[in-house]
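Exercise 7. Given the components listed, write out the predicted structure of the assembled complex. Treat all entries as one system.
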Amino acid sequence: MFAQASAGQCPKPSVAVLQNQGREMMIVTSGAVAFGRQRLRHEILLSQSVRQALHSGQNQLKEMSLPVLEARACAAAGQSGLMALYEAMFTQYSTCTAQILVTNLDFHDEQKRRNLNSTLHELLRMNIVPIINTNDAVVPPPVPNSDLQGVNVIHIKDNDSLAARLAVEMKADLLIALSDVEGLYDSPPGTDDAKLIDIFYPGDQQSIRYGSKSKVGIGGMEAKVKSALWALQGGTSVVIANGTDPKVTGHVITDIVEGKKVGTFFSEVKPAGPTVEQQTEMARQAGRVLANLHPDERGEIICRLADLLTEKKEEILSANKRDLEAAASSGRLSQPLLARLSLSSSKLNSLAIGLRQIAISSRYSVGQVLRRTRVANNLELEQITVPIGVLLVIFESRPDCLPQVSALAIASGNSLLLKGGKEAANTNRILHQLTQEALSIHGVKDAIQLVSTREEVEDLCRLDKMIDLIIPRGSSQLVRDIQRAAKGIPVLGHSEGICHVYIDSEACIEKAIDIIKDSKCDYPAACNAMETLLLNKDLLRTPMFDQIVDMLRVEQVKIHAGPRFASYLTFSPSEVKSLRTEYGDLECCIEVVDSMQDAVDHIHKYGSSHTDVIVTENEETAEQFMQQVDSACVFWNASSRFADGYRFGLGAEVGISTARIHARGPVGLEGLLTTKWVLRGEGHTVADFSESGSMKYLHENIPVPHRIPS
Amino acid sequence: MFAQASAGQCPKPSVAVLQNQGREMMIVTSGAVAFGRQRLRHEILLSQSVRQALHSGQNQLKEMSLPVLEARACAAAGQSGLMALYEAMFTQYSTCTAQILVTNLDFHDEQKRRNLNSTLHELLRMNIVPIINTNDAVVPPPVPNSDLQGVNVIHIKDNDSLAARLAVEMKADLLIALSDVEGLYDSPPGTDDAKLIDIFYPGDQQSIRYGSKSKVGIGGMEAKVKSALWALQGGTSVVIANGTDPKVTGHVITDIVEGKKVGTFFSEVKPAGPTVEQQTEMARQAGRVLANLHPDERGEIICRLADLLTEKKEEILSANKRDLEAAASSGRLSQPLLARLSLSSSKLNSLAIGLRQIAISSRYSVGQVLRRTRVANNLELEQITVPIGVLLVIFESRPDCLPQVSALAIASGNSLLLKGGKEAANTNRILHQLTQEALSIHGVKDAIQLVSTREEVEDLCRLDKMIDLIIPRGSSQLVRDIQRAAKGIPVLGHSEGICHVYIDSEACIEKAIDIIKDSKCDYPAACNAMETLLLNKDLLRTPMFDQIVDMLRVEQVKIHAGPRFASYLTFSPSEVKSLRTEYGDLECCIEVVDSMQDAVDHIHKYGSSHTDVIVTENEETAEQFMQQVDSACVFWNASSRFADGYRFGLGAEVGISTARIHARGPVGLEGLLTTKWVLRGEGHTVADFSESGSMKYLHENIPVPHRIPS
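Answer.
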């Protein structure tokens, strides 16, 4: 059951939607005074000079001086219009409404209270939405800013206290108080550092500073909070949220009911752990220490984690077993997903081996000098690699991702927030504990934080001032969702791999067969697998063509024909729906092109700039293709499956990026680094270098120590 | 005057707002049938089993079978509710409404037409919004999908044709037809390549394919377009837009009236030039050729442009004079902005010198080999630099930005869309012509496009599939606006420079004075100027402190005291409002810190990670500071003003970035480049490298040719 205090234009459709879903809703409304004031003003102006208003310019009404109106009269005049509005709106959704006007006294008289209570229950039982308002016409309007008297007594002074009173009286589960600000801030909104409080616990009340003047009307935010606390004590949870933001108005109530992070939630129960904001801050602080450790110390942490993976094998596998059992009994995971969720002794061993390799790479990541310049005498500039800051890695069911990604973050000196799948909760918890144990050997335990499974990805993406880079590890759908949700935070990932193999008229038949087979069949679900095979038109009706088709048939690859290819065929495989399809399975599209140039154009039009291959014996054609194709990876006579950090020899692999800035293609540790410029002088000023100054720019390159690629 | 066809939940507040701004509005509404169907259904169900519905579960209503209802009865039943809704809503905005029901016949009878016309005019004159609907209760509902008979005759078969008829009849300027799709697409929405048409010209009608079934109701999109064309022929412009999207509903009508790009605009007048989408496509195509030119050829283009700047000096200065005169006569530009707008012979000369330097840098940009790896025998990998793709550079009044940015784009092989300020339109036009003239010498004229001044920045930021990087050049406000508007397109720029100078207890007094003076006073408006001076507490009440304050006083720097500094003072300069202020003028904040560590914490809390300076003679303290401060530039005993691409010796300067990925701090040509991976094999497959395979990864680094930093 919900009671709701409505401010101005509240989102009525949500209420009707929820009502039709079987939720019981009551609305506590304001607006009668404002509504009536408009109406009375209009009436007075019309009666003052009806002829003038009708027969002269259109803006006449505004220019006339407006009378001061009495609030009670306004309330009376507005009430009928307000109810007509509610009635008309809810009728659109086949929802009936009822009008209830109450005064303070109705709650003091026991008989009246019982009557009100039973009337409301009866209306709700009949699926009718009660619209409740104070009877402002007979009761004086409340005195602004007068205190509520303690939390055990509450007077009906405004809609917030009325709503709180009614919510408790009716034993409502949730009271949503719509305001014209986002919620409760820890300092007056607009001041330095003012932050929206997501969840407010009664014990925290001391930490709030209220502004001297609030925009939220009678009683201000302080009175709203008191009402909320009163309702909370009476057993009703409360959310204070913005009901006026046009961007979210349509959704605010349904979002709150669905448990999304909107506004400020008042709760009795303080969760044990820190909030995600506190976790991020802890991670950043500890990450600064991590970044300043000696590379060997970072390597030691990673090796310690590798040791722990084998030392604590039993505990890890038993946690993993609990996850697998839960997944099996819920029956929600498919067989491939269960396989990804499952850990084994050998998986942990190879994980540990991988981690030790990352430990080696880590020696050449942070603090590398990329460039040195003598700007002038005794003025030397260095560009050095530094960590990016706080990374957020979101990964799906595979729990082995956790130690891998943690090792990469440690190696690059970054802080890390990890958000894993619910289905791997137990495994992730133990793996994270071990990671923190390893971090502890150099006092940076907090640099890697596991975010609670309750946190929504969308809420994490909101932390744009706190998170520097998001790395989604999982399906291309996950990557796309996160790219959409990440407002202002860069995302490193590839969303699609529509890779092409072009077989030139001068291709060697064996190489063509081998490369097509490897590119499509080695691991069809990989993003670097071939999706479209482009054949030079000269190959049609040649033995090579027949051999290619035979091989694909033997390998059970389902063929979809591109429009041109279909027009050449007498038999007809299914025609493609789109030339931009990522099959991710033993399926591919075949299309015919006139020439290498035509293949390049096709790839530019339908490709995803991931990896594209030419098979030809003609070097000039190959070089032309590789120069022209604008993809992260372009290969000549090699399988598309080589597009991979390990195969490229990058050491630790962070992922594959189809973005065009920062990192592109397979990404090693470098993708987790940025640079900073360090300048050492002796009191140099730019004025010294002006025309009349004493100094000259030299800009000499100073050799940098040889850098082993990480 | 506006006529509007409304679908479902149209945004009435907009109408009221516009009406109150003195616009004349009519609403052609639908919804009566749907409204009435809801109501009748409800009545029938209630009368069928009123007791059952009242006394059992809440979802009873849904589970009962619903009767089939006759449309005319629904219309009659819905009409009153619909009008009540309009009335109630408009009353909120003090706006009166009137109900008009019309039939086809009303337009055939001359007398009725005249009556209708004069009634509508009279209502509009009285500031009353006519709500117009077909009289569905007496006229049969229209037959779906029957064609309108030619464009010269139009029947009132649906709300679109009714609205078109009325708009022409009333000589409306604009008809807004709200639909449930974004507008008109060139192919059925959802198919490959379906693109929203921004502006539709009658001559283009052949290029549209309509879907067999449209979601837009009676008549479908084809009928909507026919109505729109009919209205257009009658002299009324038309916009078809989405009126149901909750994200934009609140704004759609006002946005359209303000001329923003929403939905599809039907216009008689086809503009001379290509659309911005066509320009982007042209730029990308020509850019691919540009990227594949020899570096010397790109250098030649830039040198040719440098020559043209001096050869065509007269024409450039005369165009600039026209802009200056227009700006002066409008009186809208301040003196500093006029100075920025103004070109001179000497400015053009130094511009040409700068361009020739970029031409030299350009030799070492595209196609540099950054890394070579022997992956296996005869399998060699190269990472080479390539252009990013299509850049959008948005710059404010300074027209000298245009050739500079163009030269940088040419040097890095990128395509470029230029969007300059309106006030420099004439100067930008001639400079762009000269740029294209220079590009023509190697046949890539279209690689750089000047976007018409009519285009809104927001609309350009919508082209996320076409533009790879946005570079705003101008005020930090411009950068922030664009970062907000750029959905999914990366933005390279710095939004704020809150630079700190920390004077350590072991600072040398002369260096401190020189560096503070240079950092603050050399060019106070620059982003690398000092905003906050942090003083070690040991310096208070020392001669150094007095000298610093005296110097600032002599230089007329206004001092704002941080909270701690204020507490030490007997005299009191104004206390800062926020420690995060970028003054950009001869003003700064002074704050006291306990130690170097305290200074680092202050910088992390209040800084913008741009440039921060320590002044000390203690090398260990300096190195600690430079290691810990997490900013793009950290300097020891040097002015913050050195944070600049030219002073760093980067050659051509793209800008300064405070982003943490891709490029950070002063950015040279490298910031406009990305990389691609080129792999050359002999038919290699990853299967060859499996445990049972014949090959082994070597991953040997092959030396790369020495690269001169660009």
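Discussion: Chain A has 24 helices and 24 strands. Residues 96 and 128 of chain A are 5 Å apart (CA to CA).
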